[in-house]
Specification:
Blueprint: E1 2-3, H1 8-19, E2 24-28, E3 39-43, H2 49-61, E4 68-71, H3 86-110, E5 116-120, H4 133-152, E6 159-165, H5 171-176, H6 179-182, H7 188-199, E7 210-213
Parallel strand pairs: 1-2, 1-4, 2-3, 4-5, 5-6, 6-7
């Protein structure tokens, strides 16, 4: 299951998993479009606990039980602590921290032994700089969530890890940044390769890890 499948990273993850022969549940606010074999598109508001629970109930009723979950929903909004109002704080917190929380909550109840979760945090979670206040705090919460859930699911043998991208080469970043600024950006496919490893049996001994994927940025 890829949550946030409509974004640049989410789309790359879907492609990577389909290419290696996995069945993929692609979850986003949209849901139209691609109908390739092995791909199931689901519409859900990932900031809503009720929507996420309903999604898992639909899958269960159809006999679909995900083994792996990637929480790639999120987004950046600039702002200092002083100029962040309650609406912006709530929006950024829900978009980044809330989506991961509700998805992890549902997955923790349903994933089988041997399952795995990968959360997408950000370098800002460890070294938040000026101008990224709400985003850095929300991504820091994703890191702590990953560590707590890894401990809670250890006995169930479900692994929980997170990656920390820095600058990602996305269409949105290309539109707002210069080629020089993007020179060291990491391609979504490169991040997808790291996630694929963390979900694979080759990483069966890895849980609770917070993996930096900064490239040369």
């Amino acid at each position: 299951m890829v949550c946030g499948a409509g974004g640049a990273l989410g789309s790359a993850l879907v492609e990577a998993f389909l290419e290696r022969g996995d069945g993929v549940v692609a979850v986003d606010r949209g849901g139209e479009g691609d109908t390739r074999a092995g791909l199931r598109r689901e519409v859900a508001d990932l900031t809503s606990a009720a929507d996420v629970d309903a999604l898992w109930e639909r899958l269960a009723s159809d006999g679909v039980r995900p083994r792996w979950v990637v929480n790639a929903a999120g987004g950046f909004r600039a702002g200092t602590v002083a100029d962040t109002d309650p609406d912006l704080l709530r929006f950024v917190g829900d978009l980044n921290g809330g989506t991961a929380w509700w998805s992890c909550r549902a997955a923790a109840k349903s994933l089988p032994e041997g399952g795995a979760i990968v959360n997408v945090a950000a370098r800002a979670a460890l070294s938040g700089g000026a101008g990224s206040a709400a985003y850095a705090v929300a991504k820091a919460a994703v890191v702590r969530l990953t560590e707590v859930l890894a401990a809670e699911l250890r006995e169930k043998r479900v692994r929980v890890n997170a990656i920390l991208p820095a600058l990602i080469d996305t269409p949105a970043n290309r539109a707002s940044m210069s080629p020089e600024q993007l020179r060291n950006a990491v391609a979504p496919g490169e991040l997808a390769a790291v996630v694929s490893f963390l979900l694979s049996d080759a990483a069966s001994a890895v849980t609770g890890a917070i993996v930096p994927v900064y490239g040369w940025a």
